[in-house]
Amino acid sequence: MNVLAYQIADSVDIKGFKSAFKTPTEFSDSDSLYYKTDPGKYIYACKYGVVSFLNYNEAQIAAFIKTIAPFCKNYSRSRHNEEFEIETGAKEIRFGFNKIEITSPNADIFRLIMLNVSQSVALDHYYEVTRKLVLETNLQTQHLEKYGRLNISGRNLKKFIGRTLNLKSNISENLYIFDSPPETWEDEDLNKIDLGLKKTFDLQLRFRNIQENLQIIKDNYELFKDIMQYRSSYILEIIVITLILMEVINLIIERIK
Known about the structure:
The protein is an alpha+beta fold. About 55% of the residues lie in helices and about 20% in strands.
């Protein structure tokens, strides 16, 4: 059994899609939808723009993505994706490279696995966005080191700071998704699967790395902003001094006359 997860957008309108897509859900809340469409086939859609499929072929996946696309914000055809294998009938729960072995399959276990795979894909997406921001920041620091000044306007600097803050906000809104779901607190097998998958995908470590990168980017741009403000204040002081000197010169000229 294979899980395929795709980052198809920045976000999905879960409420709007649920109203339009009439298939009954196995589970739903304000942030995700879980469908059993056929025997052994499941779909898990998350508000942070990831959709995962269990036992779907490429044509079926493409058809569903086409259906959900109108409810996506910043829909993208260039997608991060991840594949994960599920083996059933094992004597005990075991984890391997991109694989889990489970004893007895059920819908709750499948949903938990698909959730963790979705989180892994979301982290890939966030990492790529932060990587681009880091590259943009590095260009500015290199220019500052080489020429002693910034190569960016105040307007563009504010845009960069806004992009960083918006990304931090988006990740913070979904911070809870990296915690264990409530159902794992009362089921020993679900808890074992959840903890094992988090370790397999390095979810917590990857999340902390992204947060640290965002903080570095934010700190750099705050420094750039302070430099630009200092430059503006310096220019303003020069203008004021120049005006005062002109006034003094005018007074001297008037007295000489």
